[in-house]
Amino acid sequence: xxxxxxxxxxxxxLPHLGRLVAAIAAVLSMAIxxxxxxxxxxxxxxESGTCEGLTAMTLPDATVTLAESVPAGRYTxxxxxxxxxxxxxxxxxxVAKPVPNSSIGFEVWIPQQGWNxxxxxxxxxxxxxxxxxxxxxxxxxxxxxATVGTDTGHTGDDPDVFRQGAANPEIIVDWGxxxxxxxIVNAKPIVEAYTGAKPRxxxxxxxxxxxxxALMEAQRYPDDFDGIVAGAPGNNxxxxxxxxxxxxxxxxxPGSTSDPIVPAAKxxxxxxxxxxxxxxxxxxxxxxxxxxxxxxCSFDPASLRCPAGDAPTCLTKRxxxxxxxxxxxxxxxxxxxxxxPGWPVGSEAPVVDAAxxxxxxxxxxxxxxxxxxxxxxxxxxxxxxNWNWWTFDFHRDLRLAQKKLGPIINAxxxxxxxxxxxxxxxxxxxxxxxxxxxxxxxxxxxRQVVRATSxxxxxxxxAVARTREFARLFMVPGMAHCGGGPGPNVFDKLTPIVNxxxxxxxxxxxxxxxxxxxxxxxxxxxxRPLRPFTCxx
Length: 537
Known about the structure:
By secondary structure, this protein is of the alpha/beta class. Helix content is 31%, strand content 17%.
């Protein structure tokens, strides 16, 4: 059922395996639907050593620069990371050049035996060109998936991509949407040439920028993938970066970058106070150390106001005011329009170590001596190395940024009817304790999808039900950005989308697990069912 058509529609770093590699592996071992393979009669991978011959392939706008057979066992990936165990596979590296000044690197890894006639592409993280080789060479490859990744058309991370993009605007287009599309349309014939069979199903899984890529595919290229999983999507990209800038400016005295008004050390006070005030009344348990639905928590930082002066355990009047402005989110000073929503209560410092240091929280993305993603504004928006953030106008300058970059990098078109007509299925998810992509923004986008796909300005339960025939959003209590956090933060993402696409079994519930110390070897701390978001307050 894989499809190749022309584009349709309008217009933080590698996927977050890090601390959770073992936990993710534990559920992924259950996520590969081994008992749901198509007939093996016509899908046996080539065993005659023809992998190397793929360099002779002729592709319209791409070249296979390397094709090599990799034996089973320990493997050092192209970026130097060691994968402890991989099955024998055919590794293909290619470069797509769809337009002048575009150069998109991509990898396609095809199992030498037992291909299940499926493709699985993994998304990227932040602004990095790093390909997620651990996922490409993980359990999915062992279960028979041909796995795919791209460098998004540039090299390096922040600030490299911003400087490169300012000098070569095609890099911005590649990062924004073209690289994923060009990669998958070239991966499909490469896999067919090696296996002798077309892929029956194609899937995409990504979080953060990978979630952004996922939604961009559903919007612009609705025929590329049969099933898409979009986690914590940074799809409202220009506004998201404006949100980071807002946090920085509201937390600093104009002209002073040295001392934030609210130090990172006080963020745990907020999370702790909000959880203690609202847990048990937010849909969760009274013993939870996270919030199940922060929208049901009426927390005011003024409750922590110091009786006099300042102290590590309370907030000054000035700090209370700065925090209220940060919770409210970025707004246009002339129109009052919301630019980007604030982050939910409970996301201020969801992960704190034994010494009280914030490991995951707002402080990572409100900037240090300059705003987070300052290079986005410095190079891509203004192309001025001396850009001064203190003079930023959230009306004039934001409109300039949206006009210049929005059509290229924003994935905010809610009209997913072409994707629905194409038979595609979409699973979205995000953590309520995510301090990077506001959960409120993800919910706002899903509500727009419901309105756009139903044709109703004030959609009710029937409109939501129609949207849930092809797109569902799952909110994860206590989960931080793409994983981690005090709540249940590990769950199977692959099996639900495969079952939905191939069996018509829409996910009514996904079980999320919290492991002790986020380590499966230490046992299960709790499990919670995740159910589709209903759009009700």
